[in-house]
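Morning, I've got a small favour to ask if you have a moment. The fold is given in discrete form, as structure tokens running alongside the sequence. I'd be grateful if you could look everything over and explain what you see. No rush at all, and the record is pasted right below.
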Amino acid sequence: MDKQSEKQEKTIQESMAPASADNEHVAISLLEDHEDKKGPAVESFTINPVDQNTAKNPYRETTVTLPHLVKKVPQRDLLPRPYRSFNQVICLTYTSAIFCLFSGLLANRWAWRAKLQNGKGLYTLAKKWARYAVYLSYASFVMGVIIIVSVTLSEVLNPDRDRQ
């Protein structure tokens, strides 16, 4: 390990340019350095065996990320059409919980899961959970309206049933 870290430090020190050098000189010196070594200045990116996918955790490789290698995807690309951020979806799920409590809270759980997956960089899972949360919120609104209308109609049409 010491040889590898010394090699990386040496590579970093060799490739660093002085602050007063202009960009053209830096580019030329880096190209010359690359031609002299006959290979890449930094070793290729490989995943340690400890961090490889397992049956227990199939997404382990995607959660071990380096900040400069993470591809940022805009939130509006991960959410269904009218929504632009995960916070809007979470607000939708809270209002759907007012109409139908159980399905609204389940949708809220899925929306928070989507936001968490987005933070980890698992964009496919974030898109899936956000879509499920929005669809269940819509269903929660419909179920809530049906329940409210049916209870109201039963009270209006049969007002004497409870008084007997």
User: Anything to note?
Assistant: The chain has two domains: 2-44, 60-157. Residues 10 and 65 are 24 Å apart (CA to CA).
